[in-house]
């Protein structure tokens, strides 16, 4: 059984998906807009999120972007549009799969179960007893909720941007990330400083990670990848 959040402004669609999900044994929470979904994700731990794109108050893309700041819960995106740009943007934000309306509830559930099987295998990120999102690999432990990092059991002191950079890399682990995207996501789209700032902070982060610095790979001419 999985804890599922279904976010769509159409109550009828939420009801149908909930009925199918409940039949398969999943526990379902509903949200009618992106803002509500973000708030629910801040106070609850879900195994998967079904997120519509076109919604009032906060659209699905913006909601996923906010959620990715503190959680790497798998997301299945729903859309009434099938443009390639939408799909690319969704995947760049960390969406796991994408379904275009109209679709059958059976297809959605098949995709949900496929994502749950895939993410359950070898996933190093989980929620602890306090609901904190924690990543563990070998002797590296990163509590992304409490902003604490441990190296071989020892708490290490890091600069604020080191935490932001490390957690961003962990949430996007095993993905080649261009320098421009890292700068935009970690420093913000309105940052106009020298991009050597990224290299400096990456050097500091690797020093802080000590024996686990090798998890961060430099991709010449592109950016970085966190192998996790």
Total domain units: 2
Distance between the termini: 26 Å
Shape: globular
CATH C-level category of the largest domain: Alpha Beta
Structural class: alpha/beta
Task: Report the biggest beta sheet as strand number plus sense, adding barrel if it closes.
Answer: 5 strands, parallel
* Mean pLDDT over all positions: 85
How many helices? The count is: 8
- The CATH topology of the largest domain comes to Rossmann fold
Question: What CATH architecture of the largest domain do you see?
Answer: 3-Layer(aba) Sandwich
What's the SSE pattern?
A: EHEHEHEHEHEEEEEHEHHEE
Proportion of β residues?
15-25%
CATH superfamily of the largest domain: Response regulator
Residue share in helix: 25-40%
Rg, alpha carbons: 18 Å
Low-confidence runs: none
Order of strands across the main sheet: 2-1-3-4-5
DSSP summary, beta strand count: 13
What characteristics describe this protein?
228 residues, Arc Repressor Mutant, subunit A, alpha/beta, globular, 2 domains, five-stranded antiparallel beta sheet, five-stranded parallel beta sheet
Give the structure's gist in a few sentences.
This protein is of the alpha/beta class. 40% of the residues lie in helices and 23% in strands. The chain is globular and about 50 Å long.
């Amino acid at each position: 059984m999985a804890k599922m959040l279904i976010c769509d402004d159409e109550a009828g669609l939420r009801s149908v998906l909930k009925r199918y999900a409940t039949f398969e044994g999943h526990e379902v929470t509903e949200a009618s807009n992106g803002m509500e979904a973000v708030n629910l994700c801040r106070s609850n731990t879900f195994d998967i999120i079904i997120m519509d794109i076109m919604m009032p108050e906060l659209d699905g893309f913006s909601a996923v972007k906010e959620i990715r700041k503190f959680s790497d819960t798998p997301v299945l995106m729903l859309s009434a549009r099938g443009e390639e740009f939408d799909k690319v943007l969704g995947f760049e934000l960390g969406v796991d799969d994408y379904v275009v309306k109209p679709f059958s509830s059976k297809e959605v559930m098949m995709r949900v179960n496929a994502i749950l099987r895939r993410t359950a295998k070898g996933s190093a990120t989980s929620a602890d007893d306090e609901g904190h999102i924690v990543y563990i690999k070998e002797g590296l432990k990163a509590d992304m909720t409490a902003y604490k990092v441990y190296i071989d059991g020892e708490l290490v002191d890091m600069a604020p941007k080191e935490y932001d950079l490390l957690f961003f890399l962990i949430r996007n682990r095993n993905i080649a990330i261009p320098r421009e995207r890292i700068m935009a996501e970690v420093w913000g789209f309105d940052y106009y400083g020298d991009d050597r700032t990224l290299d400096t902070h990456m050097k500091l982060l690797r020093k802080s990670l000590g024996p686990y610095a090798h998890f961060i790979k430099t991709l010449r001419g592109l950016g970085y990848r966190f192998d996790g």
